[in-house]
Please model this.
Amino acid sequence: QVQLVESGGGLVQAGGSLRLSCAASGRTFSNYAIGWFRQAPRKEREFVAAITWDGGKTYYADSVKGRFTISRDNPKNTVYLHVNSLKPEDTADYYCAADTIQYRLWVSRAPGLEDFGSWGQGTQVTVSS
Model:
């Protein structure tokens, strides 16, 4: 089992930036894809971005493409989500999660909630207009 802890959230003005971090401990972190998801008040949790075990491929939701960048540093057991050009509609709790299967590569579909387990506790991002 991998344990994940998110950090880096906060209050930021529209157009601003943050760097969210997802620090991992436990089972071999570098064998698993990591995903970022978010959940706004009264809305369902949605996929934001994911990165494969080796960082070789990344996936993004259409709503964040060109503004958010996911990366990972395996020796540091950390995945980052750089969130730029923030909009009020980006306001949400952001969660990272580890894939349930090692070395997965999504080819015919995008990553989904059902692919991930070992969720962190979340970090709150609030974007003011």
